[in-house]
Design brief:
There is one protein chain. The protein is α+β, with helices and mostly antiparallel strands and about 400 residues long. The chain contains 12 helices and 5 strands. Strands 1-2-3-5-4 form a 5-stranded mixed beta sheet, covered by helices on one side. A hairpin with a 6-residue loop joins strand 4 and strand 5. The longest helix is centred in the middle third of the chain and has 77 residues. The chain is rod-shaped. The chain starts with 18 loop residues before the first helix and ends in an 8-residue tail after the last strand.
Amino acid sequence: MEPVELLSDNAAPPGAPRIGERVLNAISRDPLTAPHRRRNDAVLTVLVGAVTVLLALLADDGRRPGPLGWALLAGCVLPLAKRRSRPGLVLFAVVACVAPYHALDNSHMAPVPASLLALYTYAVTARPLHTLLAGCGIVCVTLAVMFRIGSHEGFESLRTSGWIIAALVCGVDVRVYRLYIASVVGRAERAERTREEEAARRVAEERLRIARDLHDLLAHSITLIGVQTSVASHVLTVDPERLDRAAIAAALEDIAETCRTARGELRTTLEVLRADGPECDGPLPDLAALPGLVRTAGARLDLRTGDGPLPPAVAAAAYRIVQESLTNAVRHAGPDVRVDVRLERLADSLRVTVTDDGRGPAAGHGGGFGIIGMRERARSVGGTLTTGPRPGHPGYEVAALLPLQPSEAPA
């Protein structure tokens, strides 16, 4: 049998807060938002009243209170039930009852608990300057009343006035502690909101990136499939008697290769959306996949990127810019278009140039988001992109300059 651990009678059950934690929670809690504050204040008022009655009956530092004295003691104790909501008025009521009570030379110890509690509550809730002024006023009133009774009582009150100062200092200290805890909690809440906003911003950026990837991938693949299908259809219909089986087979093989490439890229792109999906097989295509991309589109490639590796963000941006440019050229530049792709690594940047000699009426101009997406790609790594007709030559040109140390575009 496994040993069973028994809790002693004094041990707290698991998860229950300890006495010290309860005290700290009660001290650091805002008195106006504490749970059961009315009930607690009522119980505390009853306890203070009981202690006051005992002191009035048992203490021998003055006369036993008469009817007026008992009325004044009740006026000191009963307002404590509203000490949280009206601390200033409660303190004023207590002082207004305590002063004549002491002036009648009744038992001087009896109203002390109610007075100290009212002083502490006011110091906890009021500003320190107001607490200082109230403390000075109460000490002056107390000394004036006690010296009026007699010099002995006056000097004794001067000696015991430290209790008044102690109650005020304790209240101010608890107030400062509560303000500190509130500021810590506020900073933690602001930090949590900031983290949530940052997470939401990153999610939005990731969704935008995925949308751009899907647009580039699907637009390019579907366009090439359409062109290759048109080539096969043209071979079949132009001269059926002299069927060029090799050309048809080449066109169908290009279609199959485009489908396989698109399927692989689509899987890699969509895997980031699966919370419980497997690890990605690899990064999205970069410059290493450019030769196959350009060969499938029937273009020429001049690649001069040097021996050193390029930053992944720059390589991915260059790949997508070339892919979208080839898609636009195949779609808009007219039949038998010739496309030249050139990538040249400079000292601190990568220059990407895609030109065609298309003679279509709307060469390079589409009604979608291709050019906007390319500009966003370039801007995402701190680069620039220009598009337009080739000066002095037919066709269209897309030119991008991507720095090798990518930085975020300014907002």
